[in-house]
Every structure is written in structure tokens, then in C-alpha cells.
Amino acid sequence: MTDSTRQDLGPTIACVLTDGPLAGTTTAVAAVEGRPPKTITVDGADGTRHRYCLAEWEQSGHSAEYTFLYDV
Questions:
Q1: CA distance 65 to 63
Q2: Residue 54: closest CA among 71, 70, 72, 67
Q3: pTM for the predicted model, two decimal places
Q4: What phi and psi values does residue 28 have, to the nearest 5 degrees?
Q5: 62 Cβ partners below 8 Å, 6+ apart?
Q6: 51 - beta bridge partners?
């Protein structure tokens, strides 16, 4: 992620994908009112899209763990 992209997003959260097709991947998303979003949609390298949700409701710091829900 470039500095200009990071500025466009505003404050970001590092999303750690813990399972599913993108397990072990980390991606940055815009924070929602200072918190990680409840769900995220992540593009796979092959063009597929995957929906992930927060693994735990209470998370702290600048990263959050997400678990796989389904392909979009």
C-alpha cells in the first residue's frame, strides 16, 4: 500500500484473515468510527471475492482477526 492510498482511506485497520481461501493474508481497510468493520469483502488473486467477518467482537490495537464467511 502506498502512502497516498493510505491517506485516501483515512485511519486504517490491519485485517488478519485467519482461515478460508485467503488464510494468512493481511489487508488494510478503513476504520469505521475508529473500529474495525464487522464484515469485509476481499479480492483474491484469481479475481474471486470473499466475505470475512470479525472473529471476536472485542479487539484492540491497530489490527483485527477476521474469519471466512462465504464467497461473494
A1: 7
A2: 67
A3: 0.84
A4: -100, 135
A5: 12, 13, 14
A6: 41, 70
Q: 42 — phi, psi (to 5°)?
A: -120, 135
**Torsions phi, psi for 7 (to 5 deg):** -65, -35
From CA 10, how far away is CA 31, in angstroms rounded?
A: 8
Give residue 15's domain range. Answer: 3-71
Count of structural domains within the chain: 1
Low-confidence stretches of the chain (pLDDT < 50) are 1-6
Residue pair 40/52 in contact by the 8 Å Cβ criterion:
yes
pLDDT for residue 59: 85
